[in-house]
Amino acid sequence: MRVRNRDGRHGMGGTVDMGGMAGGVHGHCDARFARVREVFEKHFADGEEVGASFAVFHRGRVVVDLWGGLADHRAGREWERDTPAFVYSCTKAVTAAAVLLLAEDGVLDLTAPVASVWPEFEARGKAGITVEHLLTHQAGLPVIEDEVPLEEFDDLPAVAARLAGQAPLWTPGAAHGYHALTYGFLLEEVVRRAAGCSVADMVADRIAGPLGLELWLGAPDEVAAHAARLTAGDRANDRVNDRVNDRANDGAGARVDARANAVSADGLLSRALGNPPIHRLKGGANHPLMLRAGWPAAGVVATARGLAGFYRALVEDALLEPSTLVDATGSRVRGHDRVLQVETAFGLGFMLPSAAYPAPPRARRSAFGHLGYGGALGMGDAVHGLGMAYIMNRMSHEVVGNVRAYRLVEAVYDSLP
């Protein structure tokens, strides 16, 4: 049944002692998907997880709902069924859905110049940038040139004003490059100008609220207090990631390896991820300010079941019109990404299978979704009737293409008839 409401208005702790997985793996898994549970349990047994959860909807049914380990290794707090986590860029797909709802409402024209709703944005050669350019990472604004002060972290219009005063780094529409954080600040201001509300308002009033999802763009205090604590990973596991990424990307593009760019002070990726400087907050993305701020590129706090439920709603036409989803998940850009330095592919705000977003062979023509920095993943597939999500608190050093998520997704597809 469609749910419609037309009236609706990063530092990640230190290393951890993997001396066990607390109470083990909990939840349920349909017999046909037993392989998924085996993979999930093996990640803990092999010391690749601190705490994590994985949920899968298939043809409208919950077929996998697993969780285990520790939500907070320092306090010994166990991961529970309703433990949420900060999912970084998995947020971008949720923000895209909010923008697409406004397009369906006739409030926003995706092909129109951004300046038509935000006149100040026209400055310095940006008159031709459209809303679609923002959704597809083609605007040429992947970095904020001046460091954003801490007092602006939750002042999204102030950050947007900084971007309005910048010139694009490339001719808009001529290339694409991942707008890691600026994607959200730009679309936030577009939504504010066009609809008179924030993206967080749209998510609460038109997406999470009506659908009953455990998903928040800007977590309330009680949710933030219960959230999993992110912690640094182990570079030894990156060597395993390299081998699995080779296999995952067989036939889908070059092996994922954006780390060389990430560690370069002059690299666009470092500049894109490093400003606003989340590392200046004590605990980085664990800081209450980050959990509450609601950045529309990296601000969602959700359970795996909540994020998977978002994709379930998309593939079951309970959120967007079917034609809107088909259009939004068609490939708009594909090829070399000027920021990530690997092959990426995007629809309207959704990642599509590519070197940066590896998918099993059966998923490569129909899957869509978004990765989150450190390893989180959300994915939908209307052809196979799937909505799934993986969240965790042990952060991978890989920027894209996390091996744990890939193994779980591969097990899901291997379990289908």
From TrEMBL:
InterPro entries: Beta-lactam-related, Beta-lactam/transpept-like, Beta-lactamase/esterase
Domain of life: Bacteria
Listed Gene3D superfamilies: DD-peptidase/beta-lactamase superfamily
TM region(s), chain numbering: none
Domain Beta-lactamase-related: 37-411
Protein name per UniProt: CubicO group peptidase, beta-lactamase class C family
